[in-house]
Write a structure and sequence with these properties.
This is Methyl-accepting transducer domain-containing protein. One of its GO terms (molecular function) is transmembrane signaling receptor activity. One of its GO terms (cellular component) is plasma membrane. One of its GO terms (biological process) is chemotaxis. By secondary structure, this protein is of the alpha+beta class. It folds into 2 domains: 6-110, Beta-Lactamase (2-Layer Sandwich); 124-264, Methyl-accepting chemotaxis protein (Helix Hairpins, Orthogonal Bundle). It has helices spanning 6-22, 61-68, 78-81, 112-192, 197-269, and strands spanning 26-32, 37-41, 72-76, 85-93, 99-108. Strands 2-1-5-4-3 form a 5-stranded antiparallel beta sheet, with helices on both faces. β1 (26-32) and β2 (37-41) form a beta hairpin. α4 runs antiparallel to α5. The protein is rod-shaped and about 135 Å long.
């Protein structure tokens, strides 16, 4: 006898817990890929009559689910078990999506209404959550777009600051020349003696002007350095915001994917009357 697949073993372990959690009388059957029953959990009021080791008939819905690799919902005639039953059967797959067995759950048809109402409530809840997730997704996308725009404007600000810094350097070069011109003028005025006194006054003013230019450009340079630090800090913050926004978008996409899978799972396990 082949060894039971680990996934089927885990399902076997979980079935009693599932039956207790359902609080609805049910019959649960688990078979392997060779249609051999490896788990039979009858209900309190009814049993499908299968025992572990029995080979399930090819005509049963459970065998068909494994053979055709699809989920089925069928009505079981009342005369067979003195109860009107509905059964949901599905194939079981491994991590490589290969069929390794089948699972069947049978319960009284009267519980269909309860399950349908449960499904509808779950569906409404998932739809509401999904709508909220879409709104958050739009907000996160807007955050990323805004942050990207700010990042581009920040780069342009850095370019403008560099241009201003270059202008200051040019002004300093002019100031140095003016200062040198003032020094030369004072030298020439002293050589001219009494006749050069007026020229000496002009030379002093030129030197004062160059000194004032140096002081002014020094203040501007200090302010620009402070602005560059702020811009650099803003740049880092924007970069972090973009990273967070990207993570939010990716996270929300994963949530939406999970919600979609939950919706599909809810749909697949809804027990409906086969038409």
């Amino acid at each position: 006898m082949d060894q039971t697949h680990p996934i089927l073993e885990k399902i076997l372990f979980a079935i009693p817990l599932l039956k207790n959690a359902l609080a609805i009388d049910s019959n649960i059957t688990l078979i392997d890929k060779d249609y051999v029953c490896i788990g039979s959990f009858p209900g309190e009021k009814f049993s499908l009559g299968l025992s572990v080791g029995d080979t399930v008939s090819p005509q049963t819905p459970l065998s068909a689910a494994v053979r055709e690799n699809k989920k089925l919902v069928v009505k079981i005639p009342e005369h067979l078990y003195n109860l009107s039953l509905t059964a949901g059967v599905m194939p079981v797959h491994d991590e490589n999506n290969r069929i390794i067995g089948g699972l069947g759950i049978a319960l009284e048809t009267k519980y269909e209404k309860i399950l349908k109402e449960f499904h509808e409530n779950v569906e409404r809840s998932l739809s509401a959550v999904n709508e909220n997730m879409n709104q958050i997704h739009e907000g996160a996308n807007f955050l990323v777009l805004t942050s990207s725009t700010l990042a581009e404007e920040q780069k342009q600000s850095e370019v403008k600051l560099k241009e201003i810094n270059d202008i200051i350097k040019n002004i300093n070069q002019i100031a140095k020349r003016v200062q040198l011109l003032g020094i030369n003028a004072r030298i020439e005025a002293s050589r001219a003696g009494e006749s050069g006194k007026g020229f000496a006054i002009v030379a002093n003013e030129i030197q004062k002007l160059s000194t004032n230019i140096f002081e002014f450009t020094s203040l501007i340079d200090t302010s620009l350095n402070d602005i560059q630090k702020v811009v650099g800090s803003i740049s880092e913050s924007i970069h972090n915001v973009v990273k967070v926004g990207d993570k939010q978008v990716n996270g929300i996409e994963e949530i939406n994917k999970s919600l979609k899978e939950a919706m599909e799972m809810s749909n697949s396990f809804l027990i409906e009357e086969k038409k």
